[in-house]
Amino acid sequence: MTRPSGRERWGRAVALTIAGSDSSAGAGIQADLKTFQAIGVYGTTAITALTAQNTLGVRAVQESTPEIVAAQIDAVAEDLGVDGAKTGMLASEAIVHAVAERVRRWDIGRVLVVDPVSVAKGGDRLLSESALRVVVRELLPLAAVVTPNLPEAAAILGRTVADDDDEIARAARELRELGPRAVVIKGGHRAGRARDVYVDGHTEEIFDAERSPTKDTHGTGCTFSAAIAARIALGDDLVDAVRYAKAFVTRAIERARPLGAGHGPLAHEPLAAEERVARGRAS
User: Fold this and answer.
1) Is 123 one of the catalytic residues?
2) Is 55 marked active-site?
């Protein structure tokens, strides 16, 4: 089925997040919606799970049924349209299967960012190893961009990935062989500066940023993937969308203010055009 476009039908770009709810609103669909709003697209959701969590960790998880996840995607796609989309916490194998089927049905893959979320910042497991394998087998081949951090890239490849630009670029190329059009391995778990490595088969770039001295980084990965999806919805090509997202999330970390006793949320604020240029340069 041809993917309906919000931009073409309503004159407004529509982005869809398929992810879990965070009761503290620092990550998950709440962070995604804040990001969509800040970047200027209309945000929609398909909720895969309810979580009871705060800045200290996840206390409880209640999964949605695959049927209700699929129905939410249908409801958004058939009426509002989808110009950009992302997946976050997918909770179970059954939900991954349902999401992949709907991505194919609505032809969302061309604008889909897959954030292969498997472990929360506090260490809580959000996706089983078997479900992650289904993500790799069913969702990655459909995706425009996949955005693992270093541990997630290693888990997908089944081997260690050294903290080295050349080695990470090699890992990104291997991940791209699994089907996505582009891969960006995030640098948040790296020593020193936060250096993201981007590969799309034509372009290889490193997006470099100084690391902020803060523990308030809850929702960083969600915000990054949501920003990519939002910029895709607005018409950016993939490398420009990633470049913008890097600048957006760097600023959101820098402007974060303490909230909660653990890892606090980011500051989801609009990124001025001059900041986009200044911060978005590849090294």
Assistant:
1) no
2) no
